[in-house]
Design goal:
- The protein has eleven helices and nine strands.
- The chain has a single domain, classed as 3-Layer(aba) Sandwich (Rossmann fold).
- α3 links the parallel β1 and β2.
- The chain is globular, with a radius of gyration of 19 Å.
């Protein structure tokens, strides 16, 4: 079974409860959608602009893009999540596809969002970013959100490992120290409870992938900085307990204030990066492995049933 098939099965199994957000994700998506509305709000144009939610899940970002006025498309590898997305957002055109091989022509979109740690799940992140860069037009924007290497969770994982996995990260102290021994600018891959293998990136890695895809970084944000003073494994619970919930609410407010300083990105659990396609630059031709354009084909919500 391929890695993408394993990920699809993982998210298909999550589909019935996917939108029941735990405290961790409530904060993540609230902040992420603030950023998305701020930076991807389309300027007035003669024709309606197009946007893609790559790794769309149940359509959390697709719904915001549609709200902003885009003609919105979404792709995911999980049929179960796509079925829910179609029910929630019937006007969005959803397709079953891998972000490493997008079924759209080059320059098809004005904006692309790839969030929900999608990039941390793919087999070849550089190829995925190259595809995102290919399908956005010159001057268009790409918003990425992914797992960050240099977060407080790395400290918590080490503490947990030293205490016999007391916090449930599933990593030994030796595992964590092995990752810490890597070059500072290099990320790593590790298992996270209930989610399998994840890639944790450095900003330097993301910059290199953006540059190779013909994109340049415009802005960067961090999410879950001070909130990660609580181990993430304790917040991936539907009911974390009253005292913990109160502490988390306080830390969320402090996290929002810290976000204004730009310091949060240095130790945040999630990195959000805005890239822009070089204006007027040559747009690569469609990948020879890409399927035909789905901008007006039956992979839309109006076609046969297709995260």
């Amino acid at each position: 079974m391929s890695v993408s098939s394993e990920v699809a099965r993982l998210f298909d199994a999550m589909a019935p409860t996917y939108d029941q957000l735990e405290p961790w994700y409530e904060h993540l998506y609230a902040r992420l959608h603030e950023i998305l509305r701020e930076v991807l709000a389309p300027l007035p144009a003669p024709a309606r602009r197009r946007a893609l939610d790559a790794g769309c899940g149940t359509g959390l970002q697709a719904g915001v893009l549609e709200e902003l006025g885009y003609q919105t498309h979404g792709v995911d590898i999980s049929p179960g999540l796509l079925a829910l997305a179609r029910q929630r957002f019937p006007r969005v055109r959803f397709a079953l596809a891998d972000v490493e091989e997008l079924p759209y022509p080059s320059g098809a979109f004005d904006a692309v969002a790839c969030c929900g740690s999608t990039l941390s799940f793919v087999t070849a992140p550089a190829r995925a970013v190259a595809e995102l860069g290919r399908v956005v037009r010159p001057g268009g924007l790409v918003l990425l959100e992914c797992e960050h290497k240099w977060s407080l969770d790395l400290v918590w994982a080490l503490v947990s490992g030293l205490a016999g996995d007391a916090l449930g990260y599933g990593l030994s102290a030796r595992d964590v120290c092995r990752q810490l021994a890597r070059p500072l600018r290099e990320g790593f891959t590790a298992h996270y409870p209930s989610y399998g293998l994840l890639r944790f990136f450095t900003l330097a890695e993301l910059d290199a992938m953006l540059a190779a895809a013909g994109l340049r970084r415009r802005r960067v944000w961090g999410i879950h900085g001070l909130t990660n003073l609580i181990p993430s494994t304790l917040l991936h619970r539907e009911r974390p307990g009253r005292a913990l919930a109160q502490l988390f609410t306080t830390l969320r407010r402090a996290d929002a204030l810290l976000a204004r300083t730009g310091l949060q990105r240095c130790f945040a659990n999630s990195l959000v990066v805005l890239g822009q396609r070089h204006g007027g630059a040559h747009v690569p031709s469609a990948s020879p492995m890409s399927r035909a354009s789905t901008l007006s084909e039956s992979t839309t919500t109006g076609g046969p049933a297709a995260r």
